[in-house]
């Protein structure tokens, strides 16, 4: 179905030019797992010394590949690493057969690449509950390994798409001590997107040097303010995986480098926003800025309550400046709020304050904000210093069309 | 907008015949608050000695009438009581003006009915954030009082509708010690319906005798297993109010009467299910039975996670037996689950067990279940004795149509 959906109106004009990440080679191929006539599998192989960090869905029904990746994180990095991803089948809720599929794929990749099985990470995305035809994937591994290339990130991003309408990539380069460090990432995700877990499939690579513990800490910290602050439909995938791999091939140790952290955060924010921009049926990209909450955690609770509200999201789809629904979503969130201290703005238009509509608010000013492709909703609780920004999209007929028909 | 929506395909064939509740008289009228050409206000007046219980939204941005009702519960019941409800405007997030509106309406009702202001309860339902034109309501009170009648429950149910496509009523009669006790209730609600608060506007009357504390305890207990177990769209209203009034006019004390409790529960379940059946855009009524959870609370968490999942609800709309999305919703709920102990059935069709699709499951059997108007999803966690049943509807194009246009 992914192939037939129109490209999101919120998509970037084209896939970005990504830098080569030293120590990384990739290849995409067509295994015919479910989709025909397109690539549906990608292999990434990284040099010895590559450290690997990851965050994953906290779903109690997470998939076999997620469980396998979690178990392998933090292992010996001396031998390098590989990642194999397929689309079209998530290998989730497939019982012991699912674990067998993962084991067989890992064994085959290890055999052909010469890497230890403990350094082979896999992911699967697509329909839940159907057996993964892993033989079709295994049959492609030799060709994938033979075709490995340093410039195949875009092909890899395309191979992992499901209901995505565009391939997602982002990059940054920073100079540290006169040396250039590169970061490049790819992502897939469009529906079954909710925060507070890892999210979707995201692979970020850098040629920086960073020990695994530091790499993991940095990934977790930045994930909380990027991927964990987006939502399309409040539904959390069984397969969400975000991996960050540092090949070290630049020779630059980025421990405690603020520049590197900033660059990595920029890449993660860019990719996470692209996922929202490709939200199923999305026509509006919505940033929700919460300030004045009792704590950052309560700010996030309010932000996600607004971002996940079907009534707020349908109002945005209808270009209706329906701030009453924002009031409703704040009221139901469970976090602290005081009606008379709240203020709400759409973009720069102050809509409500002191427990009621702002005296200078004109409906046409709010309506003008809602006609934009990118909408900002600002809420100040007036209670404390807690802040959070979350991102979401609108809820449209196209979401229903996609999800009443598509078996994911 | 309510007038132009087609009647829900899940609606009962007609409004039920309701018994007369001794000690209760009602009248509906047209104040022109927002809607034209229909009734939009109702007054109920009850005899001296009537005890009044209520549960209300826990929203932090709850409306002025909700706050006023909460403050008045538990007061002296010797003088009787009155309830005045308008539709078209919720008087929520209307600042101090909202409180003034409530006070002026209560003063006018007290003046004309001769009841003390402390026994006048009001509710408003409709658009949030616009000033309530309370003068239009006050102008109708004398006519409403003059027209009070014991048989006007259906007219009252119609007057409080907003996006509802049918008026909702339910009743029961029980014989206790040779005497008949009657219960009759009305409700409105269609969108912005979520549990764990009170819910919507619901008024239940009985001529039973029950002290206020016992009445309140009974209402709260039964609310937790009826109205607090339904959801249309996970969004919680700022105006939710459920009131139960016992006029005592039957002369029958129902303290500790199991028959009365069962009859009251039946009325509350019936009304709560009618709200789901009138869920905005609903074409399927869905009962979700959770068993085998660690606790009843965890069973409810799982049930609501399934019931509120946009992906589950759109799959049901598409008549797709997509049990993978049920697995997803269980996994994300936060409550305990073990993939390999779970079993899932659609109606009597066992779909998944032991961590995977059931070996005897045939897709056509699941698909046949999904073509029904009323669908049962059964989930057994296999962990403990916790159970809960929740009710919801599907998520359709019509929900988007209603909510991308309607200002509620």
Automatic annotation (TrEMBL), chains A, B:
Entry EC number(s): 2.3.1.35, 2.3.1.1
Q: Which domain of life, per UniProt?
A: Bacteria
InterPro entries, from UniProt? Arg_biosynth_ArgJ, ArgJ-like_dom_sf, ArgJ_beta_C
Q: Principal localization?
A: cytoplasm
Q: What is the name listed in the Swiss-Prot or TrEMBL entry for this protein?
A: Arginine biosynthesis bifunctional protein ArgJ
Q: What does this protein do?
A: Catalyzes two activities which are involved in the cyclic version of arginine biosynthesis: the synthesis of N-acetylglutamate from glutamate and acetyl-CoA as the acetyl donor, and of ornithine by transacetylation between N(2)-acetylornithine and glutamate.
Note the SUPFAM superfamilies from the entry.
DmpA/ArgJ-like
